[in-house]
Every structure is written in structure tokens, then in C-alpha cells.
Design a protein that fits this description.
160 residues; mainly alpha; two-stranded antiparallel ribbon; elongated
């Protein structure tokens, strides 16, 4: 492998490592978000969400770097499996564990995201139920709000 290709590969590897770490960090933030929501610590959510947004922006930037570096290596638009098929034996040996770890962290991120999303949906439902009760409404068996008809709408034009 020539020096230029090795440098391109080293840059690609660095981006993959950074993506792996960042995916793990975002998963951890998702876990914190789920924990805060489940413990009804809503005051923590704003800070957690801001941190998550910053990490997502960083993720987008790293993904752009990954795409450019893959293109420079002749791997434009290839999946990780396709890259491994096309890579030289020495490259494949280095890339396989990196891709495996990145895939593991991305799966963890997906699981954490789904979990926090579900907990937040439950909390939103609880809040909506409480608001409906305060306003005199309730939830029906389908989970929809059945608001109590406001008194001013019950009035009719009738003569006594």
C-alpha cells in the first residue's frame, strides 16, 4: 500500500473511531433523557436535549467527513460490508473490528432512542390525562381525550 493510500485510510479510520465514540455518547444521553423522564425530573430534560442536539450536529459533520474520505478511497456510496469486500486484505483486517464496534454502538443508540421515546410518550400521556382531568374531561377507553362540554356550550336559546 502506498503512502498516500495509507494516509487516506488512517483518516478514514480516525473518522470511524470518532463516529463510534459519538454514537456511544449519544446513546448515553438518550439513557439520561429516559431516566429523567421516568423519574419525572422534567427540569433536567432541557439541558439533556440541548446536549443531544449539539452531539447530533457533530454526528452530521463526522458523517460528511466519512463520506468524503470513503470517496477518496474509492468507496463512495458503499456499505460497510461492500467496503470490506472491496478492501485489500490488510485494510480488511483493520476495518472489520472497527465496523463491528460501530455497528454495536449504533444498535445501542437505536435501542436507547426507542426506549427514551417510549418513556417520554408515556409521560406525555400522563400529563395530558392530568390536564384533561383538571379541565373536567377524561380519557375514553381508546386513549382519546373526551373533554367535558363547557357550560357555555350547553346553553340553548329557549323560552321559558
Amino acid at each position: 500500500m502506498n503512502h498516500d493510500r495509507q494516509e487516506l485510510l488512517d483518516n478514514f479510520i480516525a473518522v470511524i473511531k470518532d463516529l463510534t465514540v459519538l454514537a456511544g455518547d449519544i446513546a448515553q444521553v438518550e439513557d439520561h433523557k429516559a431516566q429523567a423522564a421516568s423519574q419525572k425530573r422534567h427540569e433536567l430534560l432541557d439541558g439533556i436535549i440541548q446536549k443531544e442536539q449539539a452531539q447530533i450536529l457533530k454526528l452530521r459533520g463526522l458523517e460528511q467527513h466519512r463520506v468524503r474520505r470513503a470517496k477518496a478511497l474509492g468507496w463512495e456510496s458503499l456499505t460497510f460490508r461492500q467496503i470490506l469486500e472491496k478492501a485489500e486484505p490488510g485494510e480488511k483486517e483493520v476495518l472489520t473490528p472497527l465496523f463491528t464496534e460501530l455497528e454495536r454502538q449504533l444498535k445501542r443508540l437505536g435501542d436507547s432512542r426507542r426506549s427514551s421515546e417510549q418513556i417520554i410518550k408515556v409521560r406525555i400521556h400522563e400529563i395530558e390525562t392530568a390536564i384533561a382531568r383538571q379541565q373536567g374531561g377524561s380519557y375514553n377507553s381508546a386513549g382519546s381525550v373526551s373533554p367535558k362540554t363547557p357550560p357555555h356550550l350547553k346553553m340553548r336559546d329557549t323560552y321559558v
